[in-house]
Every structure is written in structure tokens, then in C-alpha cells.
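Example record for the data management plan.
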Amino acid sequence: MERVFNKLVRDNIPEIIISTGDEPVTRVLDDEEYKVELYKKLEEETKEVVTSKEPKETLEELADVLEVLRAIASLNKKDLNDVIEIADNKKEKRGGFEKRIFLEKTFIKDNK
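Corresponding structural encoding:
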């Protein structure tokens, strides 16, 4: 029986599949394919965070998102420390989300 996945997987997945007695069929992506598949993976993992039901499951899915972010940063010749530094700077200037502020609307003043 054949199961088709056609998606980017973690590096050790082929060995894990082999250890179960199954045979994986894989290929190595070129740079452009890798970038496209990383963004697909980010979307997939983010959806899994949103649909997670339990705190432990949410943390597992967030860890997957973090690993994808690490790969995307690396693809851009950066690392998570660079991303965190940018996030910290943005938080300092614009704030975080701790106050749970929900912007409903604004009124545009005529004198602008």
C-alpha cells in the first residue's frame, strides 16, 4: 500500500519510517523549493497550534513552529537570536500583547 505525503519533513523522519519496516521515498529540495515548502510547513504548523485542544499539545505545536522559524531564519543567513532581537525591538517600540487590547475601530479626524 502507498501513502502519499508530498511535504517537507524533519531530518530524521526517513530513518524513523525505516525503523517501522516501511520504505520512504524522498528527495532533497533545491533552495527555491525549500523556501516554498518551509512557508507551507509554517502554515501547517500554525494551523495545528490554532486547533490544539490541550496546553501540552499547544506547546508541542509551538515547538514545531519554532523549528520552522529556525529553518527560515537560517535560510536567510540569520538565527533565532536575530529574530528575537528584532522582536524585542518591535515590542519596545509598539508593545507586546500582554494587555489584550482589541482595536475595534478608529475615527478619522477631519483636520488631518
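Summary line stored alongside the record: The first helix runs from residue 13 to 19.
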